[in-house]
Design goal:
alpha/beta, seven-stranded mixed sheet
Amino acid sequence: MTRPSGATEDQIDTDFRAGARAATPVAAPLPAGLTPERALALFDSQVGSRHLDLEARRLRAHGAGFYTIGSSGHEGNAAVAAALRPTDPALLHYRSGAFYLERASQVPGIDGIRDVLLGLVAAVEEPISGGRHKVFGRHELAVIPQTSTIASHLPRAVGVAFATGRAAKLGVEGGWPADAVTVCSFGDASANHSTAAGAINAAIQVGFRGLPMPLLLVCEDNGIGISVPTPQGWIAHAYGSRPGLEYFPADGCELASAVDGARRAADWVRKHRRPALLHLRTVRLMGHAGSDVEGAYRRPEVIAAERDRDPLLGTARLLIGAEVLSPDEVIARYDGVGARVRSVAAEVARLPKLATAAAVMAPIGRTSPQAVAARAATPADPERRSAVLGAAKPEDGPPLTLALAINRALADVLAGHPGAMVFGEDVAAKGGVYGVTRGLAKQAGPARVFDTLLDEQTVLGLALGAGVSGLLPIPEIQYLAYLHNAEDQLRGEAATLPFFSAGRYRNPMIVRIAGYAYQKGFGGHFHNDNAIGVLRDIPGLVIASPARPDDAAAMMRTCAAAAAVDGTTSVYLEPIALYHTRDLHEDGDGGWTAPYPAPAEWAEHHVPIGRARTYGAGTDLTIVTFANGLHMSLRVAARLERAGISSRVVDLRWLAPLPVADVLREARATGRVLVVDETRRTGGVSEGVVTALVDGGFDGRIGRVASQDSFIPLGDAALHVLISEADIEKAATALVSG
């Protein structure tokens, strides 16, 4: 016996027509709060979403469409949009067609059907991504486009909800009204993801601490994740009695239940400013996507039962039963919407698509160097600066170490950017593991410098939400090794948002990370991680890697200015072993300290993104390095000079974008280049530098020293896998004499 492939688009359409014709008017009044006009408007949004799903498959069959994951069976989420305001920020999952159409209907001049069709055909005119991806999003609708990485948008949603209250507390203009509710939808399968579990836990904890967390979580429970069933009753069991999370169950297949549940949930969150979960029971019709043959893994009776619970048919029966429409009028309304969808689809399918790499990449790494330089050189007004930094200014004090320079620069950023916040694990009362943020909480106040719970996904999600809400987040990841369980928040959320929104939404932030190796008497891999390959291939991500105190302060100001001007996401890597280093060549020489420039000198000391710094003017050898490698290379250069080898040392300072022009210029000045890379030989920074030299046509000699492809062991054993001054000196001598 051949098993059915599942409910096809023709079957779904036929079932709806038959069910509508079989419905009988019974003069049953509509439920309280649901007027005929409101019910008809919601039905139109539901019908529009269904026809968009049907058209997506037709377009794909003709090679004109590129996305067939639909919302059929989830049309009850139109009720969620109706319960909210069009200014409430929304982070939606991919079965949110009816929500989007209902939200669009609330804002004059926006055609939701056309928006979605433009996305399906990847047209340049699509109003959020510009043809780069099929997402639900539009700036005018406060719908923030999301990727399809499972549950990755939940930490950001927590951040958006948190930022709504925090912006008001700071007295700065945020991205949303002060009484906004953040809504975040996801499926029952996604609810099991560790990212979702962490985000929901964070939301509950924030509320437990008495802080505003106006977050409405909507779990659209269709009982299956692609082919894997969710145990019946699991969502209610997991979240139905969770302390600190108000629970509202509703049937998404019955409009009256969905409207009532969504309204009660949204009103509760808006009133209490605490998180709630709306458990919307739905069905999934026509499989996971157009290519999915669900008959291969679902029993025929299960598929048939789901078709019987079609939410469109449920709303049609409600309207017919209340004598708002007759069966023929329901079908006529249904067909009218379908005709419009097909007409618009035929038009948009002919519209231009992205035609060049430059067009595709236009939103990535947009920069305004002159505006950034001007902003980086602009301090807070003297009164404001004194209010944060106090009477004793850093420029009036002694030369600073790297750690102290970062600290003082952070204080200036907090003074100059009213929406700036410094947060992470142990950054407030303790002042950080290494004291880098010591005193900042007292200077700027606990609303701007605060500790978070111990979860890097939450730390970065908070930053994502704060950044998109108009603030300037400066999160700290305590150690580089701790980044990796949360790195998707940078790769899948922060970096992709400008791409998927054509720059309409941005993620301004500076992610501070203590990293690299060479700590003495403290370590092992998790406190000496030297692997940054996971960051270097993220398009548009800026990676700052200051080694010296004067560069560190200037680069912090640059990152803050780039965030404010261009919405730049920067990772600011801080070499732990250099935090408190004072000397360079001899004990007591103070060669690794630097004075803090007065604001009048900031323009002179500005460090543009992607520009290197050169030490010396030797003609025999160019050493290219960064971070701890700079300290080692400068010491080696002095010894080489005494041996008759004249060298110059180039500090990259920025690992993305690499300062290619500076490196090529300094390489050609000597004809020999030694790349000194403390990261791993495979996937390390030196691979990019050497490639840039070759691509740039450098025809001189190239050598490199890099650390081994190893984790960092404890104690002196680390010295066997990390580069040393002896390694650098040996390679330099061989390169010059060879």
